[in-house]
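TASK: fixed-backbone design
INPUT:
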């Protein structure tokens, strides 16, 4: 667990704490938020007070100070280390165990929060135009790029209601969602142009790249680029036969075996998808599972199959 002996929270009002937490999430940082829910009897905490702990062990706000705050910070630090921890309502009794004699108690909600996962969709063709807004509706922060002006036309990307992320009920932390109405970021550029990754975290190990261009050679280049940039998830739309060729070409170019093995192609869960909309659902389902950390052993890297088994779209 991180050493909190030198952590002294900076005093801030609840709305300032929320603003700081949101700013950290927008910057791709992890946050744990503590909120006073209730006070019983004599206690220094006041319902509504908030404290956040950032991943660099900066603390902002207060939930009453003293031993209660120190004990809560310890729990928050553990939650910061354990990314799969869930929100917890903790009761602190202000007695001998905390070296206090107030006699009351306070209930504090401790919420681990992780930033929205960035997804770069390379190629605004039939599948890309469906997949990008669908992923945005699921709480991903989506950039869609294509160097063809006609393909990068905003009118081609159908609007979908953005539902954001709901509180977790399965032991996973809450996730910062795209705000309602936030559009897909559409960029007229090649995948390796600097404006494409502008606004994404410097560390792309928690981001995903989905390759689905109009050209097989361009797909190959984009996959190699995404691996080199360190995207944590790299997937490509295509047939199993195309996957085998992609594997061979990556190996021929000297791409490390470990990187080749982690490319997911054909991308998406096997649900018999054929149309662009169906393929978008399949790949979105797989990304939701990846985001939640529930990797399935049956997922394979790019694998060979008899020619002619094509993935639609």
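OUTPUT:
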């Amino acid at each position: 667990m991180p050493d909190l002996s030198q952590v002294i929270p900076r005093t801030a009002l609840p709305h300032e704490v929320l603003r700081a937490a949101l700013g950290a999430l927008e910057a791709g940082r992890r946050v744990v938020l503590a909120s006073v829910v209730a006070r019983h009897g004599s206690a220094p905490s006041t319902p509504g007070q908030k404290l956040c702990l950032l991943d660099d062990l900066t603390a902002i706000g207060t939930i009453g100070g003293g031993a209660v705050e120190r004990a809560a910070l310890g729990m928050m630090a553990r939650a910061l280390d354990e990314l799969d921890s869930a929100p917890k309502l903790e009761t602190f009794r202000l007695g001998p165990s905390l070296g206090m004699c107030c006699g009351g108690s306070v209930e504090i909600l401790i919420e681990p929060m992780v930033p929205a996962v960035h997804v770069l969709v390379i190629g605004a063709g039939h599948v890309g135009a469906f997949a990008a807004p669908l992923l945005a509706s699921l709480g991903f922060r989506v950039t869609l790029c294509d160097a063809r002006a006609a393909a990068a036309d905003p009118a081609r990307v159908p609007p979908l209601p953005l539902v954001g992320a709901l509180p977790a009920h399965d032991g996973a932390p809450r996730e910062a969602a795209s705000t309602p109405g936030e559009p897909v970021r559409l960029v007229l550029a090649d995948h390796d142009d600097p404006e494409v990754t502008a606004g994404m975290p410097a560390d792309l190990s928690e981001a995903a790249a989905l390759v689905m261009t109009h050209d097989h050679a361009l797909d190959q280049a984009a996959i190699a680029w995404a691996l080199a940039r360190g995207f944590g998830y790299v997937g490509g739309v295509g047939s199993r036969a195309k996957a085998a060729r992609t594997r061979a070409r990556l190996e021929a170019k000297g791409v490390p075996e470990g990187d080749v093995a982690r490319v997911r192609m054909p991308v998406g869960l096997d649900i018999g998808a054929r149309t662009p909309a169906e393929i978008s659902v399949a790949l979105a389902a797989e990304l939701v599972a990846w985001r939640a950390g529930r990797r399935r052993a049956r997922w394979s890297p790019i694998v060979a199959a008899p020619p002619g088994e094509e993935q639609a779209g």
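COMMENT: The first strand starts at residue 31 and ends at 40.
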